[in-house]
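The following block was generated as part of the benchmark described in Methods. Ligand: iron/sulfur cluster.
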Amino acid sequence: MFQVSYSPALTLVPTYECFNYCTYCNFRVNPGTDTWMSISQAASILESVKSHYVCEILILSGEVHPHSAKRRAWFQRIYDICQLALERGFLPHTNVGPLSYEEMAHLKGVNASMGLMLEQMTPELLKTVHRYAPSKVPQVRLEQLEWAGKLQIPFTTGILMGIGENKADWWETLEAIAQLHITYGNIQEVILQPYSPGNRQTWDAPGFDPHLLPEVVAAARQILPQDITIQIPPNLVADIGGLIACIEAGASDLGGLVPKDEVNPDYPHLELGKLTEVLNFAGWELVPRLPVYPQYDSWLPIPMQQLVKDWRTNIEM
Ligand SMILES: O=c1nc2n(C[C@H](O)[C@H](O)[C@H](O)CO)c3cc(O)ccc3cc-2c(=O)[nH]1
Ligand SMILES: C[C@H]1O[C@@H](n2cnc3c(N)ncnc32)[C@H](O)[C@@H]1O
Ligand code: SF4
């Protein structure tokens, strides 16, 4: 049977506070209105999932401005949470917005892979949804992918669709990812993320029409090099039929199946058993994977390589 993968994951949020105002966001709160996650809080969450089936710890955060006096403490908290997760035997994947080259280099030491969505390359969105979101300047984000390449960090990126871009913009952004990967070889997966409204975004637009997704998947499969996996979030598609259509069009990963989707809390995941069953029925086997793809194992810091090796024998039974 053909296989579709997912990552057994848990999300930790160091802080929801963010200096950007992406108008489609349901995650952010205003700077200064949130208490950051403490290390002991993180420790007790990790303790509570110990017996469960979790490998990846996704560290997803709101952002502190690069020139803010609080930036150093923010970064240190993220680093400490990664280190803690690693010590407890989990594999961290950090996605906390653009980093300085030095910050990224430090985080490489405590992450199995890292991520940042390219969103869309068109500068037009800086006049609309990203008007007050300096972190979303396309060149800044593309440079992040490049730095990750130079630092040999296995990387997850993707496009967010339905935020005011057009079709040509999708292909341009996917081409940019393809080019980057041809140069640096560090893009392990690309997420095709449909914008999905919740209760808190200020942008008044309908969600991305999920019926268009299979077509985007098929085109992305043509544009992206074969060794890049295409990921579809199963909770943001219309229904099971839509999900199967995406898989048949070339998506082969469902991303992190988490207890709570922190970015889209209004869209719960199907229970793992149920998802396994419906995929089986359509002829697909759902298999767990690590946050780092096997071809990148040799890029990881030496101490992490043994842990990854252990996870591979445990998880890929
Ligand atoms: O549960 C989620 N996981 C998200 N993930 C995690 C993803 O599903 C995978 O678990 C990781 O990429 C590891 O392979 C992201 C990772 C990124 O690097 C960039 C964006 C996302 C977005 C989400 C998300 O909205 N919800
Ligand atoms: C972590 C990633 O989540 C995505 N993101 C942010 N808000 C939404 C939303 N309402 N719907 C779907 N994806 C969203 C962005 O692409 C961001 O980079
Ligand atoms: S999408 Fe990320 S950068 Fe934009 S407001 Fe939300 S948390 Fe901040």
